[in-house]
Amino acid sequence: LSDAEEATEEATEEVMPSDKMELSQRLAVEELITTEASYVHNLQLCVSDIRAHLQKKQLPELDLEGLFSNTDDILHMSQRFLKGLEDTAGRGQEQLLSISKCCSPEPSTTSGLLSPPNTPREAAAGQEGSPAHQP
């Protein structure tokens, strides 16, 4: 384990269970923000430096418009998302809980609505109210 990981484990072990969960959530949000900031930085490099370099090369077989067709939009959205994360994390514990709930690996109540039924019976159960499936 790295020094930072050991320090985190030690800090986690020394706190009460609710504080432990709060610390875990705070660390998860910090990691999310750090990861998103890194992604935005790398995307900025692609949009500015790499695209500009390829444009200077003027390679006829390279479709730069197709290759970079939506990177500007993705960069803009990612920058807004990062700013929202940073603003929310700066507001305190209540907002951290909101972020952690949104990013939680636990299944949400809507997850079943988004996935197709596994069996014909599940499919039929989802269509019970339709006239075609009335007994």
How would you describe this protein?
The chain is mostly helical and 135 residues long. It has one domain. Helices cover 71% and strands 0% of the residues. Helix 2 (17-57) runs antiparallel to helix 4 (71-89) and helix 2 crosses helix 5.
Distance, first to last CA = 62 Å
Uncertain runs: 108-135
Summing up helix and strand content along with how strands pair, one would put the structural category as mainly alpha
Shape: elongated
* Radius of gyration, whole Å: 23 Å
Beta content: under 5%
What is the total number of structural domains? 1
Give the tally of β-strands: 0
Helix content: over 70%
In N-to-C order, the SSE pattern is HHHHHHH
List keywords for this structure.
about 140 residues, mainly alpha, 7 helices, about 70% helix, elongated, disordered C terminus
